[in-house]
Every structure is written in C-alpha cells, then in structure tokens.
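Why this split exists: single-chain examples teach little about how molecules sit against one another. For that reason, every record in the complexes split bundles all components of an assembly together and asks for one structure covering all of them. Below is a record exactly as it appears in the raw files.
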Amino acid sequence: MARLLLGLILPLGGRITFKGKKPQENRLRTYLIFENPDTQFVGFTLREDILFSVSRLPAERREEVLIGALKKVGLFEKAHLPVNELSGGEKELALLAGAFAASPSLLVSDEVTAYLDPISRKKAISLLKDYARENLVIHFTSRGEEIFYADTVGILNKGSLRFYQPAEILSNLSLLEEAGVEVPPWLYLSFSIYKERGEICPNLQALGRAIFSIS
Amino acid sequence: MSEPTGSGKGNFLYQLEEVSFSYPERREKALNKVSFRVRRGEKIAIIGPCGAGKSTLLEVLASLLLPDEGEVLYEGNLLKKPGQLSGEVGLLFQFPEKHFFETTVFQEVTLTLRERGFRKSEVEERYGEVMRLVGLDPEKFKKENPFKLSLGEKRRLALASILSFNPSILLLDEPLAGLDGRGKSLFLSLFEKMSGKTIFLVTQEVSHLERIAERIIFLKRGEIIFDQPVKGILKFSWDEEDIPFLPFLHQLSLLSGKRMEEVREMFPMGVGSCEKD
C-alpha cells in the first residue's frame, strides 16, 4: 500500500491520484520513509544523508533547513557520525529528519516507530502530527495506541480496507485486533472509562490519573 | 546442543568485568564499565532508551566486538579474537536484511550448514525442521527471494538461518519490532519453547518480556542502572525519567503505589493482545 501511494509499484486495477496527479508524476512532492532505515540512507554521515534531501533547494538555504531538521528530531549533535554508527532508534529519527528536510506535501511513513523507545516514539508521532498541519501524512503502524494522533484511521486487513473514519468513531477495538494490530491494555481500559464520558484518552499518564488519581 | 557444563571459573557462562567500548566517531562511550555474570540457560532482557548501548552489548557478547577496556570471559576463558564464538552464538540483527546473502530462501537458511560441510540429506532435513519451527512452509518458500518477503517473514527467515546450526546462545536484537500482534505471539511462543538455550533479548516491547525473561538489565548511556530478577523492579528506587521504559503494569504500580495484584485486577483482559494465546 505504501509503495502504491508513492508510485513505486503500479496498481493492477483502479486509480490513485494525489492533487489530481498520478503518484509516479508526483515524486518531487511525495516522500516515503522505508521500514528498514538501512535501505534509505544515501549519505556516509548523517549530515551528508540529509544534504541529499535538501539538494533541490537553493544552495544558501540548504544549511539552514538541514540544521532545522536535525534539531527537530534531536540529532543535531550527531550530524558528523557515520549513519552506520547510529543506533536503531536514532536511524529512525534520522529518517524523519530527512523527510522533514525534503518537505514533501505527502509524507508516507512505514513503521517508523518500530525501533523507538517509548519517549522517542511519542516525540516522533507528535512531530508527524505537527507536520500534518500543513501537509498530508499517512502513517502505517502496527501499534494500536497511535490511532489517537490521527484525524482519520484506516484499518487494513488481508489487503482490504475494513474501516476508514475519524478515530473517535472507532467504537470496536476488536476491529483492530482482527487486523493483527496490537492493542495495549491501557487502550482497552481507557476505551471503557472514557467512552462513558464521551472523550478519548490520549495516553498512559492520563489513564493513570483517571483510575488511580495519580497526580 | 551443549548442556550446562559446570566448567570454568565459578560455573559462569559469561563474565563481564568493567567492559567499555567506544565507536571511533563518538565522544561518549557506547558501553561504560559494564560488569555482570550469566549462567548457562538464563533468559535475560536488556532494555533502556535508544542509543543506550544495547545492540553494542549484544555484539560484544557475540564476540563481534572486542572491548576497549575490561574483560569478557566465556566459560572462564578470555575472549581475544573477533568472531571467536561464531559457532556458539546466534545473533539476530535488528534489521533482518543484514542477514541475507543468498538469492533463495533455501540457500539462505542452509548457508552455514553447507559451509560447514554437512551432507546434502542432512541439509535438506534441517531446512525443513527449522522452517517449520519458525512457521514458514518449507516448500512454498524454498525458491523465494529473501529480500522480497514481508518484514515478519524476513525476521522468521533470519531466525531460521540462525537456528539451523543450533547455537546454544541466542542474542536477539529487537525481534518483535514492527511485527503485528499475531507476529509477536508467534515469536514469543517460539522463544518460550527454547528452554535449554541462553537467551539475551533486547527489546522495546516491554509489556511482553515477563513471558521470556527472568532477569532484566536496564542500560542507560552505556551503564547498567538495574540488573535484577523481574520482580525486583518494584523494590528499586527508579529515576522518574526511567519509569516510562519499564513494563506497563510495573509503571502503573510504581506510579500509584498500588501492589501488582491490585493493578493486575484492573486488566482482566491481560497485558496486550499477544497474551491471549
């Protein structure tokens, strides 16, 4: 699906358009973050890699965008490192920096939170959410809790779309589980507690407050 | 597979004494004076923030990296040569593509066996065995290109190629990352079955680690913050910033001051969708 959206593979039937154009005509405006960071890196050091993302900008702006992107994900101090010396989680943050630097109108991310620790995960997701204010972000994930950051949730199961609605409308978590998405326990609990109040529970801390009155 | 031998100093499989390691371009050390001992058959989870040195530690245990300072003893003997333990350990890399050299699944799984001169019939037999063990159909996948499989299939394939030579030590780097609930279930039950092996599991999927590990090592900035059995988590005085990296129910218990039993009662549905099978 992610590759179809970018026009890296073509559909056997049907049609995909983004801003009225086919994906393969849109490549300069679209960006895919791969599942495996090592297949995405083109530079030897982190800095060189991000430079590739900004290569279409006028020379005098490149440095500024590059630094901005690295600072955003918290890797500015590591810009001089060879990409193969980054840890798995840092590699994913580096991919995000590369994507932000390229500033595509459509950003597709394939499991970019897979190797991140819980704190960096939250950061990565909020960065994507920020980016989605002015652009379209499609985030593929097998982590159930991440649906709360999205405006619209699509559930893919065995190649077909089982649900495509705002997250608030999702009333049945088993739809996620049937599709093989992992649903963490606090999501279940928050669903039952918050559902009654007509709100959604955004995170573990809020849930902790709700059930144990943790300050 | 070798059984606990009891040979060597104090019966330890591994002894790490003040092990430090730095990468050439990095100012801070990846591992800083890390010491611990491990007995054969132990199941250990290594957790902590990204960039803490977890993967580096696995590569040191695999003898792929030799420490800059300190000593690693294996069955009482000092590790001196890179790759010295290659016959004993199976290292599952974080990104499965790193394993693949061959163009078909069969060639990939049997690479080590063929290199070690196993007979053709043995190679065929072992191929079928390990593929079934990881839940891949040996016939269906035989001629597939490893690089064209899905992430879950790639991981299983990488695991099959490691299990092919039956290592007694498994070093698993984020084997659950990017897998869906079903994929995680399958991997977890696989690891549970490997009772005789010594397992080191690096993971961010901490809700599941109780199913595999008895002991937890918490690494941060290259140092060991915590090295105890799982139940020791609740008695330890954690820095507030480290709590989010712990298993979910332990977090709730620590934050609320409630006992684990009380917290567990809040979750009749278990700890995540992988718990159910």
